[in-house]
Design a protein that fits this description.
The chain contains eight helices and two strands. Strands 1-2 form a two-stranded antiparallel sheet. α2 packs across α8 and α5 crosses α6. The longest helix is centred in the first third of the chain and has 30 residues. It starts with a helix and ends with a helix.
Length: about 200
């Protein structure tokens, strides 16, 4: 039973980390830049989720659904504006982007500390169903997180591999100049990818 429990907990942790890394991988894979502020987008999404769940009436499930909408949308919008106003001005240069996102990291960090404080904010699970194993009960919500992570990873692969928008992203990844010559708005694609990466980690 201890081995099974360790496997389950490790699977949940791996699913959360994979979902967190998905947005970072998307940004680096398409734009070839490292978003050092990625962790701060994760933190901001978590704090916005807590705040949304706190103010929305109707119980934990209603707050959870609202947070799933509000947190990624707000963080994605912030990242899109950042991409347009900050990263576009430095032409998405890899080295300059590292320095710029380090500065963004400290700005978001200090703003979050000023607004939300430094204390941990617990968020109630949307449901408390437990799956009964012969030796112990296990949280159904944690297994839901694993399933949701797998679904998002599969959806991201399908989007990049099977859709026109994914093809455009891959074209800008391989050859930015050729993509521009064919009329692809590379700067807009980069801003959208940066926003999508932030929105994914805010989930």
């Amino acid at each position: 039973p201890h081995l099974l429990l360790a496997i389950l907990e490790g699977t949940v942790a791996a699913a959360v980390l994979a979902l967190s890394a998905l947005g970072l991988s998307l940004v680096f894979g398409v734009m070839r830049v490292v978003n050092v502020a990625h962790g701060e987008f994760f933190m901001l999404g978590a704090m916005l989720a807590w705040w949304t769940a706190k103010i929305v009436p109707g119980g934990p499930l209603a707050g959870f659904i609202a947070a799933l909408i509000v947190a990624p949308a707000a963080v994605g919008l912030l990242a899109f504006i950042t991409g347009r106003l900050l990263l576009r001005r430095i032409n998405y240069d890899p080295e300059a982007t590292i320095v710029a996102t380090i500065g963004l990291l400290f700005v978001i960090q200090q703003l979050a500390l000023s607004v939300f404080g430094a204390d941990a904010k617990p968020v109630a699970a949307p449901f408390t169903y437990r799956i009964a194993f012969p030796w112990f009960g296990y949280s159904g919500y944690k297994l839901f997180v694993v399933a949701a992570s797998l679904a998002l990873l599969t959806g991201a692969w399908w989007f990049l591999a099977r859709t026109k928008a994914g093809l455009i992203m891959r074209v800008t990844q391989f050859d930015r100049e050729t993509a521009t010559a064919f009329g692809i708005p590379v700067n807009t694609v980069y801003s959208a990818v940066f926003a999508a990466g932030a929105a994914l980690v805010a989930l």
